[in-house]
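ok so dumb question maybe but i'm new to this and my supervisor (M.) told me to 'just get the structure for DNA sliding clamp PCNA' and walked off. so i did the thing. is this what she meant?? sequence i used:
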Amino acid sequence: MLELRLVQGNLLKKVLESIKDLVTDANFDCSSSGFSLQAMDSSHVALVALLLRAEGFEHYRCDRNLSLGMNVANMAKMLKCAGNDDIITLKADDGSDTITFMFESPNQDKISDFEMKLMDIDSEHLGIPEAEYHAIVKMPSAEFAKICRDLSTFGDTVVISVTKDGVKFFISGDTGNGNIVLKQNTTVDKPEESIAIEMNEPVSLTFALRYMNSFTKATPLSNTVTLSLSSELPVVVEYKIAEMGYIRFYLAPKIEEDENES
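this is what came out, is it supposed to look like this??
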């Protein structure tokens, strides 16, 4: 028996909105510790890891580990039926091939429930190794989203470089080049607007902007975003989800072969 009751139902809506363009079908794993997901995008370039800890739910019951295969787009459509202030409950019986979503308005005058068929999805669990990163940048998530959006008008790959001077986003496209440099700034009155950079050694990596723009769909979940960078490792773009967990996007850097040949 599985029963999860989330008072901040709009958190789940925002999570689904942020991953539905990347992931088609996915297994949501439920255990006694929480509700999680790990899935590759269809082109096997990016990985999404989600964790909602059990303590963040008002009521959390999961009698045994369950893997619920769901179509993410259908799940997002279903959650669109919930109001932003609704309490969302997910229920599934052991051995059942359906999951029920229940939406309750805050004053209990409207209760909707929808049943969705579960799917059998083959997916291997990828061990994500704990890594020491060369540089970690923490910045306002809206600022990061704007940078990715602005730069994508010039080209499709961005070079992210972290040095002692700050973090630089560089793009070179047919119409010209662009540079955006952010300097460390932690003395702001509003901590959510600060830019913090931890650097053990300088790092410069190239990424596909299309994916970065897709990751920024998680901006509504958190005021800040953390970028963890290391040469030859995927970047980790992390958004914290209230006090209950996180969504992390992993993207492998592009290897610039044409530079060596010219």
